[in-house]
């Protein structure tokens, strides 16, 4: 009788311990699986064509990103950039977030700048951004040159009053020419339409504010611009 009364509590106490060890094992397996998935997501080789994009979706997202950028909605801009990278560059979930973070960071470092030296602080993040795009691209573009061309059109746009007419168009065309490895003059229409959309945004903002009708016109021009680019790089 003594043995029976001491064994029952021991058995009862052992069951929660066994269940606890089982859940620890399940948790460890889950963590390992998540780490493997994260590693694959972030570092596994991938290959995609930069030419294979939906121009209307890119235009929609660019309009949205402009609105977020100018209203300083950092989180919203980050989400929109993530969507662009995931749907148009086909980056997986974690990688699209990591790359979007660098792009959004570069944009706001530039936005807060007041001189070329300030603006160039965005360059390391732009280089990192284009390294990630180059890693999945089937087009052999120059990462450093692409990053500098991106920054250059940002500067030309910011300092547009100090530049001759057409400088912004050329800067925009030069970037896409590098990314797609085509002659810049083939991309003149794309660049002109995109620059016109930027000019409307800037002029309306200087005049007191950009209204919904202005944003509709900007969106329309961006759709035309990205359709023109798609046609030019997919002859």
Q: Describe the biggest sheet?
A: none
Helix content: over 70%
Using only C-alpha atoms, the radius of gyration works out to 25 Å
Unreliable runs, pLDDT <50, ≥5 residues? 33-38, 40-44
Distance between the termini: 92 Å
Shape field: globular
How many H/I helical runs?
A: 10
Structural class: mainly alpha
User: How many strand units?
Assistant: 0
Structure description:
By secondary structure, the protein is an all-alpha fold. It folds into two domains: 1-44; 55-233, no CATH class. The protein is 77% helix and 0% strand. It is built from ten helices and no strands. Helix 2 (55-70) packs across helix 10. The chain is globular. It starts with a helix and ends with a helix. Mean pLDDT is 86; it is low at 33-38 and 40-44.
Topology:
Layout: H1 2-43, H2 55-70, H3 74-88, H4 93-111, H5 116-119, H6 123-136, H7 143-158, H8 167-180, H9 188-206, H10 212-233
Which terms would index this structure?
mainly alpha; 2 domains; 235 residues
In short:
The protein is mainly α and 235 residues long. It has two domains: 1-44; 55-233, no CATH class.
